[in-house]
Structures are given as structure tokens and as C-alpha cells.
């Protein structure tokens, strides 16, 4: 089965956002990965509802919205209304994670949980059967272009075992430092979806780069 490819729009050319989204529409990308940063949970600020709505107007593929924000529960419904079809919140940002997962599902969106590099997958034991996606951060969140953290491979294996043990249908998404070299092993270890930002948008031919990632399996 071929992997889900979710190019990260954060690495695109914001001055030509419409054409970048249209390029992704024509590519073999499956989702558009949208990073929302508030300058509090992570040391960077990206964009909010107006930009997400602008992307949604042109996108022909699902918007995979990754909330790197504190108190995400305050904005779930707004992100859904702005076009999010998958909403991932960070375990580290949620005091009541199970409630927030149910809140996401109540909007009709798919619910994801993201984990920082230092966070153990075992902390998902009580909710893994309720989520549609686990986003494993393979770099420290906040900035694109970082070096891939090698411990991610072991983490994917542990997460895959947890998913199987709890009879969960959750997909495993890898976000950060994904490229042509590490993609095959990520998929071998159990990843289902690959987020790629700089690797796609800084390449000479983004459409071909996406195709190469798509055809790893």
C-alpha cells in the first residue's frame, strides 16, 4: 500500500500561495498539511483562520491541520469551519485529551494527536482506540528544515505495537525531516503518512519529488 503524502504548506511560497496549492492539487499529494503555531506552544507564529480559509478555497484535497497551540479546545469548531478535515492537537497542550478528541470528532473531522520528540507513545494507551491519527514529531516543532531525529524509528515501532495491541485503526504520520533517504525505513517501521515541507518545496521539481515519495512502497 502506498503511503499518504502530506506536503507541509508552511514551507511553500506564501507570496504565491494560490499557485502552490494548485500545484499540490495536480500532484500525487493526498493531503495538505497545515501547521498552526501560536508563538506560545512553539517559538514561532505561522498563520490563522484567514490563511487557512484562503487555502481551503483552492484546495481539492483534505486539509490536515496540525495545531501547535495552547488551549486548542477553544478553537476546534472554528478550524473545522475554516476547512480542516483532520485536526491534530498536541498531547502536551491538552489537560483533558480524551475530551478534546471527542470534541474534534463531534465536528465531523478526523481526530489526531501529535507527540513531541520527548513524549512517550505509551501516554496514548488510554486514547489510542479513539484517535484516527498519531502525528509523531521527528524534529522539535516550530521551524522547518531541521535534522531528522533518529530515535523516531524506535518510536514508530512502539506506537505500531500499541495500535495493534489496542485494536486501533489509527494511522501513523511522521512530521519533520522526511526525505527520500529516510522515507523507506519510516514506512518499513510502520508509518502510514509522511509530511514533507522543505524537501518538497525547495526541490527543483516539487511534483516529481512528491511522486518519488508516493512511490516508495
TrEMBL record:
Binding site for a divalent metal cation: 33, 35, 66, 175
Catalysed reaction equations from the record: D-ribulose 5-phosphate = D-xylulose 5-phosphate
One GO BP: pentose-phosphate shunt
Pathways per UniProt: Carbohydrate degradation
EC number: 5.1.3.1
Cofactor (UniProt): Co(2+); Mn(2+); a divalent metal cation; Fe(2+)
Gene Ontology cellular component terms for the protein in this record: cytoplasm
Active site (catalytic residues): 35 (proton acceptor), 175 (proton donor)
Pfam families the record matches: Ribul_P_3_epim (PF00834)
Keywords: Carbohydrate metabolism, Cobalt, Isomerase, Manganese, Metal-binding, Zinc
Record-stated family: Belongs to the ribulose-phosphate 3-epimerase family.
HAMAP family according to UniProt: RPE
Protein name: Ribulose-phosphate 3-epimerase
Amino acid at each position: 500500500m502506498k503511503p499518504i503524502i502530506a506536503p507541509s504548506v508552511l514551507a511553500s511560497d506564501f507570496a504565491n500561495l494560490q499557485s502552490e496549492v494548485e500545484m499540490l492539487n495536480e500532484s500525487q499529494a493526498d493531503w495538505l498539511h497545515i501547521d498552526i503555531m501560536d508563538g506560545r506552544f512553539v517559538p514561532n507564529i505561522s498563520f490563522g483562520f484567514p490563511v487557512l480559509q484562503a487555502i481551503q478555497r483552492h484546495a481539492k484535497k483534505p486539509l490536515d491541520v496540525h495545531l501547535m497551540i495552547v488551549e486548542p479546545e477553544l478553537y476546534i469548531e472554528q478550524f473545522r469551519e475554516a476547512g480542516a478535515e483532520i485536526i491534530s492537537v498536541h498531547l502536551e497542550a491538552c489537560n483533558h485529551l480524551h475530551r478534546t478528541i471527542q470534541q474534534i470528532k463531534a465536528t465531523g473531522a478526523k481526530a489526531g494527536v501529535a507527540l513531541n520528540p520527548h513524549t512517550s507513545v505509551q501516554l496514548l494507551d488510554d486514547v489510542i482506540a479513539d484517535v484516527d491519527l498519531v502525528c509523531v514529531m521527528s524534529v522539535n516543532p516550530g521551524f522547518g528544515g531541521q535534522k531528522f531525529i533518529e530515535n523516531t524509528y524506535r518510536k514508530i515501532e512502539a506506537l505500531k505495537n500499541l495500535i495493534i495491541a489496542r485494536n486501533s485503526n489509527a494511522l501513523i504520520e511522521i512530521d519533520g525531516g522526511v526525505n527520500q533517504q529516510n522515507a523507506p525505513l519510516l514506512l518499513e517501521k510502520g508509518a502510514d503518512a509522511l509530511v514533507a515541507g522543505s524537501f518538497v518545496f525547495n526541490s527543483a521539481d516539487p511534483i516529481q519529488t512528491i511522486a518519488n515519495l508516493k512511490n516508495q512502497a
